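Field: sequence (string)
Field: structure_tokens (string)

Example rows 1 and 2, in order.
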Amino acid sequence: MNDGVNIPNGEYGVAPENENRNPIPRAPARSVIDRLLREPEEFLREMFQPGRTGGFLPVLTWRIIFAAAVFGAVMGGFHSVLMAGTSAVKLPLLYVLAVLICLPSFYTSNCLFGSRLSFLQVAAAFACATAVNAVMLAALAPVSLFFLVTSGSYGFHKLLNVFFCAVGGLCGIWYFVRAMRTAAEASGQRLRKGVMFIWLLLYAFVGTQLGWTLRPFFGAPGQPFEFIRKGRISNFYENIIQTISEPDSERNGRDN
């Protein structure tokens, strides 16, 4: 009741009629990475809509390159500014090449087992997983930089960053499984976990050996700068065991 008092529209919380006709402007769209992390289900469902998948790939690729470059620069910072710069180039290259090497085999094997997912949908799932991996590494870069400044141990710096890469990789795998499940549901299929598990093992081996081939990323103290390490050919796993047993040995410094 207003007791006979006429209250003009727009006062005391009463909106004028013409305001209802003009919608309130929406806030700017949230960034792709923000939605990728905060709203994964909604983001994935939107990405896998017919005709929309391809538009997400360039955006995700640039995010991967930038985030991986940040962490790569910190990795190489133990040796020199030049090594930091080359690691900032090689780490994004590592992620992109690993996906390009393994993507055809994963898509083909899925097709053989009856999957109806398109090549772009599978590529988008990989892009999402790699973006999550790279963003996690970029988030851990300040921690790595802190220990780089406060600790002078090369072996500790290398093992710490390898551990961070493993954490980022696990986050990427978790997101990849989620993305493939969403893509399968969108096409009315069930997720083929066996094929995906075998492929993930292959992807892990390819990624680690490719990283070993593109070494050095850290640059051992006392060793000259090299863009690609020459000399003894071994493998990533052998070198990590050597680093744990002899953190600052001369042999360990020559091979990474």
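Row 2 begins here:
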Amino acid sequence: MVIATADNARSKSNLAQRRKDATKSSFWDRFCFWIFLCVLASLRETLFSGLGAADLVMRTRVEFEPAYLLAQRPYRETSLLLEVFTPNQGRAGLVANGARGPRSKLRGTLQLFTPLLLSWSEAGELGTLRVAECDGAAVDLAGERVFHGWYVNELLLKLTERHDPHPRLYRDYGQTLGSLAGDRGEAALRVFEKRLLAQIGYALPLDGDLEPQRRYRFDPEQGARPAEREDSDVYPGSSLMALAEERLETRQALRDARKLLHGALQRQLAGRELETPRLLRAARAVGDPAKR
């Protein structure tokens, strides 16, 4: 009986000690956590004091990316807003600080139809241009061919999204500029339009079994179907085959490709007007007094 009483006393003593130790441990854990929160708050104030929301956005740097300039316009007193087309970053908007200044080295570099190497930093929708270098000779376009180059640029501006890379379309763009300077400029335009539609997800369904001498009604979504009667939306099979093979070697094939592609592009433009064709028509009217 005495032994049992002594054991009970020791058990109660041990239980009390464990409770005391647990209370100390719990207090110490809470104290350490409170210290941690205080240190974290202090670090936040030290590291981020004086920074605005824009400074907290993660910045990315792009180094020596091949590019073509699509468009530019004045920004503030001496700067430019640029739209460029690149193989790995897609279309990008950049700010060229001081590019219009009298001593800026960028004035002779940032030219249309010139292969470039650009470096910029980006922290949002617009990047800040840091370096611009020529990466080859400019394509020499003269007369109406300048309008053709502007037209290709406008298509890219209105039918591609920023930061959506199209490496193959970038290559096609460079090849098209070179072709515009030659004697196959119109065919190059039609092929570029066709490839652009394919790259943005609206490829023309030209892969059906076509007969050169047969007449077809063509729908940009459903493809070619034999025509039951003749009207403005009917094309010869030979013209559709020439467009599918990108061999636009006759005036008939070029004329039909232009009409067909115009309708397909208008669907994607969704009512947005292209300015370059209007400017070309105005320039032609000025040059021909009978059209004034």
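free_text_note (row 2): The chain is about 45% helix and 20% strand.
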